[in-house]
Amino acid sequence: MDGTNHSTVSEFVFLGLTNSWEIQLLLFVFSSILYVASLMGNSLIIITVTSDHHLHSPLYFQLAILSFIDMGVSSVTSPKMIYDLFRKHKVISFSGCITQIFFIHLTGGVEMVLLFAMAFDRYVAICKPLHYLTIMNPRMCIFFLVTAWTIGLIHSIAQLAFVVNLPFCGPNELDSFYCDLSWLIKLACTDTYRLEFMVTANSGFISLGSFFILIISYIFILVTVQKRSSGGSSKAFSTLSTHVMVVILFFGPCIFVYTWPHPTSHLDKFLALFDALLTPFLNSVIYTLRNIDMRVSMRKVCRQFIIYRRIS
Description:
The structure is a single chain. The chain is an all-alpha fold. Helices cover 75% and strands 3% of the residues. It contains ten helices and three strands; from the N terminus they run βααβαααβααααα. Helix 2 (58-84) packs antiparallel against helix 3, helix 2 runs antiparallel to helix 9 and helix 7 packs antiparallel against helix 8 (230-259). It is globular, with a radius of gyration of 21 Å. The chain starts with 10 loop residues before the first strand and ends with a helix.
């Protein structure tokens, strides 16, 4: 970019997901449906939480923010991937590639902190129910939100610091459908062994460590509840299982992509597609189907929308 990073590469070429026309058509239909469904599902969660005063609680506030982030996660890479499916020359500019990396790690960092905030919320609600409203007050919710965006920005900027000054002077083909550090670094015209290790440590070990901390925290909550009341453990397990599924969906692909010792392009592409399309969609489905209050409120919102459309 204008010589500031000694680069002669102005754009990168994506090799895409497949060269088969039939599979491309199937992926186009599958991806388009999932992307639209993800946007609609997460938008409905946000509208429901904001419009129903019964859902104005810390947990649903965090859920609405999570749905907003999931919309961002799916929108960073999916629209271009869908657009590129039938293009022979799949290109992205250097600045566009850097922008994708920035928003991928920004949304990832924010969502990671939000999952910790939701785990803390469940700990307080289950283990300290009498102090829930005192601890999880509006100030605490704002603190979690600001912390999430701050850590997301720091994480994303730290990732970009690894690549903005790398020299790109030759190969410009990325065996993927979007830009990320693990593929981009390999195209640099310099020895990147240490840099690849730093990226793995920054994203991979953070993902792995955060995953185990969250799982251990949920196990701790269940053990605490079981010691106090055997009858309450089943209800706590039902509540926490929803959060555990979301944690696995979020961290699973990240852990494999950044820490798997012998990655393959096909596995990486599948996990990236899963993370970009399926995870945001499944998050909205999981929280909707397993939450009675959310289902009831969504029906009210849908009925009000139908009535409004008939009147207008």
